Amino acid sequence: MPLYRLHYFPESGNSYKLALMLTLCGQTFEPIWTDFGGGVTCTAEWRKAVNEMGEIPVLEVDGVKMTQTAPLLLKLAEQYGRFGAETEDEKFELLRWLFWDNHKLTGYMATYRFMRAFTENNDPQVLKHFRRRLEDFLGILDGHLQHNAFAIGTKPTVADISMMAYLHYPSDEHGFDFAETHPAIHAWLGRMAALPGWKPAYELLPGKRMTNYAK
């Protein structure tokens, strides 16, 4: 069995994606809390020792450090035979939604949520711009989920794990009430939370938390 060590911070939805995937696949990992809020990932020392890209998460597999959440999710899906696609059409759809999430949904939500909740002095006009973009992306996802139980059909995949990660955090962080505004997303999040072994981020990722200025 591989030995996993996950470098993370609790508020990182990308860290949660890997933690949740490992957990749903019946794997354990050693949690390595990282002082992202303190700027450690910006230091030359950390980038030389942990990740030259200066990003969290980092997944160590038997001592080998690996980065970038999407390819890691795909690698784990293939390794454990879970949450992947079966046909060529399904593989295309999985990648389509996974890439869309990385470029649009996660890309904007991660930045918006961080600025909104974990930055003391933010720019209201920047937040307004990101919010407007997110409302578009969330509308696209909600419309898709009105006709699909999961991203590519009737079974959850790593595309779902990727898309739901930032959306499942408390509403006082991201500022959306999905039950009220996006009922299909709300129902889908419930289906994901009902998967055997599912746990929320702040349970899977312990450690010192950043100040939430949006409360």
Concise description?
The protein is α+β, with helices and mostly antiparallel strands and about 220 residues long. The protein has ten helices and four strands, in the order βαβαββαααααααα. Helix 4 packs antiparallel against helix 5 (about 125-145), helix 4 (about 90-120) packs parallel to helix 6 and helix 5 packs across helix 9 (about 185-195).
Task: List strands and helices in order, with pairings.
Layout (H helix, E strand, L loop, with lengths): L3 E5 L4 H12 L5 E4 L10 H6 L8 E4 L2 E4 L1 H12 L7 H31 L5 H22 L12 H7 L6 H4 L3 H4 L1 H11 L7 H4 L11
Parallel strand pairs: 1-2
Antiparallel strand pairs: 1-3, 3-4
Pfam families: GST_C_3 (PF14497), GST_N_3 (PF13417)
Organism: Bradyrhizobium cytisi
GO molecular function: transferase activity
Walk me through the structure.
By secondary structure, the protein is α+β, with helices and mostly antiparallel strands. The protein folds into 2 domains: 85 residues, 3-Layer(aba) Sandwich (Glutaredoxin), CATH 3.40.30.10; 107 residues, Glutathione S-transferase Yfyf (Class Pi), Chain A, domain 2. It is built from 10 helices and 4 strands; from the N terminus they run βαβαββαααααααα. It has a 4-stranded mixed beta sheet with strand order 2-1-3-4, covered by helices on one side. Helix 5 crosses helix 9. The longest helix is centred in the middle third of the chain and has 31 residues. Keywords: Transferase. One of its GO terms (molecular function) is transferase activity.
